[in-house]
Amino acid sequence: MPELPEMENYKELLQQKIVGNTISGVMINRDKSINLSSDEFVKNVQTQKIKTIERRAKYLLFHLNNNSVLLLHLMLGGWMFYGTEEDKPDRTVQVQLSFGKQHLYFIGLRLGYLHLLSQEEVKGELADLGPNPLDVNFSLDTFLNLIRNRRGMIKTTLVNQEFLAGIGNRYSDEIAWHAQLLPERNMNELNDKENVQLYQSIKFILKQAIQYGGYMDEPLYKGDTKTGGYLDRTYVYDRKGEACKRCGAPIIKDKISSRKTFYCDECQK
Predict the structure, then answer these.
(1) Is 259 considered catalytic here?
(2) 102 and 148 in a common domain
(3) 226 catalytic, yes or no?
(4) Which of 5, 15, 165, 227 is the most buried (most CB within 10 A)?
């Protein structure tokens, strides 16, 4: 499932492509991917201009000039492609937004969705999300207050969207590795130094993943050389049996709370 870095990468690239452009056409191939009837959805989206694109946790928010919002959650298997009909991947498209001869294709939305909501409805939809770990106001003191008396394992805490918004399975493992902490360690067992390191590792890993375009397999557009650049840079995730990049010990694959988990039991303590 795309996490914070993937959605931030999509946001940054799409801002260059479609912000300020008018939606000239809308095609709905799967009614379950939207929240209105196809006719109503098209009526309220077509001819609207994309004012800005915002990311919140694992969501993208496309703000339209009629003050409504297209709220996107890709969920498991969802991705996007922007380009002409000739460039479109040979995949099933659930929703398509057109901008003249260029189109934004929403692909793999079997669980994901693109909902048209009011500003107030969006606030309600996202009300339970925790703070953005990359917000300028998310300081060390904020983090320490957040984890005070916090119980539960590092792994399950990091993927809890009500605790922090945007971290999922992949980056929770990357963060724990970078912090040199075993993912099954309990939060209330960490000492002051470990808490500081965990905070720093959250910031470092998420920023690094954004810098290299996240892990998505498919490019966003023809000639896109950024998207997916983090795939070859992961430290532990999906690297079972490979040598740890820090100590050389083999990476272990395990399950924690039914989630596949990767770590090094030599240098993570």
Answers:
(1) yes
(2) no
(3) no
(4) 5
Give one DSSP letter per residue of 68-93, joined into a string.
Answer: -EEEEE-TTT-EEEEE-TTT--SS-E
* The domain boundary residue, chosen from 93, 125, 157: 125
The pTM is what? 0.96
Give me the catalytic one of 17, 51, 246, 259: 259
Strand, helix or coil for residue 206: helix
Q: Which of 3, 6, 8, 174 is catalytic?
A: 3
Q: Contact, 19 vs 104, CB < 8 A?
A: no
58 noted as active-site residue: yes
Which residue, of 125, 153, 177, is where some domain finishes?
125
Mutual orientation of helices 140-147 and 192-211 as an angle, nearest 10°?
120
Domain extent for 71: 4-125
Q: How far apart are CA 184 and CA 182, in angstroms?
A: 6
116-163 pLDDT tens trace: 999 999 999 999 999 999 999 999 999 999 999 899 999 999 999 999
